[in-house]
Design a protein that fits this description.
single chain; about 210 residues; alpha/beta; Rossmann fold; Arc Repressor Mutant, subunit A; six-stranded parallel β-sheet; about 60% helix; about 15% strand
Length: about 210
């Protein structure tokens, strides 16, 4: 059975050597090349046409993001897996939008790297557990905010709508024919229910959870 050919792009020699050593013990994977230079890597990949490229995001000459479309241009069948010290989901999303098939962080266990390679070789997409955990937390926080909005009274929702439109407490009080003191009390309760500290944060949460309010 032919081994999966992997090319490693990382500007740290120790990291490249670590990958090479890791895969040397595998019966399924072999490192067919490595490089720490942007241009050199693209040129080598165009000749070797590896099955998988492990691509570091932070290269000295350019961003690994810039390399993704170039790699796919010179070797269309190659599967690119982004590798980074950064665990921000937007960065992983950007890599996938550019054509990468996987994203792992340098905190990922070795088993995850093998899983990522297996999955992308079989036509799948792989996102490491660290990123998935962050996305799950973000989703949970979003649901918490939604629950908070559902707890607002009709009067509080009305006040939130007017706050979004930029009206002051005095103007809202006049429009609703209640005292400024009552408006301020409502505003305080709204902030507490949504667990935010100020009006700017309130508006941001509302726009995220219910932009049509």
């Amino acid at each position: 059975m032919r081994k999966i050919a992997v090319f490693v792009v990382d500007d740290h020699r120790m990291i490249r050597e670590m990958w090479s050593k890791l895969f040397s013990e595998s019966v399924k994977i072999e490192v067919v090349g490595e490089s720490g230079e942007f241009g050199e890597a693209i040129a080598a990949i165009s000749v070797l046409r590896p099955d998988v490229v492990l691509l570091d995001i932070n290269l000295r000459e350019a961003s690994g993001l810039d390399a993704v479309p170039l790699i796919l241009e010179v070797s269309p069948d190659t599967k690119v897996i982004g590798v980074s010290m950064h665990s921000q989901p937007p960065l992983a999303k950007k890599m996938l939008q550019l054509g990468a098939k996987g994203y792992v962080t340098k905190n990922s266990a070795h088993e995850e790297i093998f899983n990522a390679i297996d999955q992308v070789i079989n036509g799948g997409i792989y996102i490491c557990e660290e990123i998935k955990h962050i996305l799950a937390e973000q989703a949970l926080n979003s649901e918490t905010k939604k629950s908070g909005i559902n707890s607002l009274s009709i009067r509080e929702l009305e006040i939130v709508r007017l706050i979004k439109k930029g009206y002051s407490s005095k103007q809202i009080a006049e429009m609703l024919d209640i005292s400024i003191k009552a408006i301020e009390a409502h505003r305080y309760k709204i902030l507490k229910k949504l667990n935010v500290k100020n009006t700017a944060s309130l508006i941001n949460v509302i726009n995220t959870v219910n932009p049509f309010l």
